[in-house]
Specification:
This protein is α/β, with parallel strands linked by helices. The protein has a single domain, classed as 3-Layer(aba) Sandwich (Undecaprenyl pyrophosphate synthetase). It contains nine helices and six strands. β3, α5 and β4 form a beta-alpha-beta unit. The longest helix has 26 residues.
């Protein structure tokens, strides 16, 4: 009897969520949907421990599966660019026993994105990654460069400060190759010159940044690009993030009066 009651409760709950999803979707205006959404996929390890797993890689695997759901939700709602922060430069210092399985999961996920024909753009310090991981990311970029539709930025080995440093370094190398002196560059240098050398060059800046797991900080995510972004912090751990949570984030974004720093 207990199992029957629990089954009925779950069916009623699932029905209620589906009805709520439809209400949220109906309330969204196409004009209010963000073009670019950044997502900090946080809370995989905590979800694993909460679920009773001693092996935290089970949380990372569950979180990887959630990425494919998110991309479908984004495509359905009209989002054009998604940036997923999967591994920071700081994460590279994690113990080998944890880092190696995580890198393997990221490689499998990126390969899955290629197989599903998403347009994949790796962003991060690929030179800091193991050769195999860097190769998978580079291959994904080459294999999907002409794919239409949603652009998926995969941030692996990513840090906001490192990105800005890389952009400035690239800018200096470019001008040095032209014979430009430091003094000449200093006279004309502006923010647009640096923006042209970021990992996201040519893309719209993120309109909305979502962080899961209840943490309310950026931690270096898209430092340059998020100057005028709206932020949404969700208590759910990333593997438990639902379509309802995503739609709530979009609703919150649509209700805001964006001032762009004014």
């Amino acid at each position: 009897m207990i199992y029957v009651a629990e089954g009925r409760f779950m069916r009623v709950r699932d029905l209620a969520y589906r009805l709520y999803e439809r209400r949220l979707e109906a309330s969204l205006s196409a004009r209010a949907v963000p073009r670019h959404v950044g997502v900090m996929c946080d809370g995989n390890r905590r979800w694993a421990r909460m679920a009773g797993h001693q092996d935290v890689s089970k949380g990372h695997r569950k979180g990887a599966d959630k990425i494919f759901e998110l991309l479908q939700w984004c495509r359905q709602t009209g989002v054009e660019v998604v940036t997923l922060w999967l591994l920071s430069t700081d994460n590279l210092s994690r113990p080998k026993a944890e880092l190696e399985p995580l890198l393997g999961i990221i490689e499998d996920t990126v390969t899955g994105l290629v197989n599903e024909q998403w347009h994949v753009n790796p962003m991060g310090a690929l030179d800091l990654l193991p050769d195999r991981t860097a190769h998978v990311l580079k291959h994904a970029a080459e294999a999907t460069s002409n794919n239409p539709g949603l652009l998926v930025n995969v941030a692996v080995g990513y840090g906001g400060r490192r990105e800005i440093a890389d952009a400035v370094r690239s800018l200096l190398v470019e001008h040095a190759s032209r014979g430009t002196t430091i003094e000449q560059l200093a006279e004309v240098l502006d923010v647009e010159h640096i923006a042209e050398h970021l990992y996201t060059a040519g893309q719209p800046d993120p309109d909305l940044v979502i962080r899961t797991s209840g943490e309310q900080r950026l931690g270096g995510f898209l430092l340059w690009q998020s100057t005028h972004s709206e932020f949404y912090f969700c208590d759910a751990y990333w593997p438990a993030f639902r379509k309802v949570d995503f739609l709530r984030a979009l609703r919150s974004y649509s209700e805001r009066n964006r001032r762009f720093g004014v």
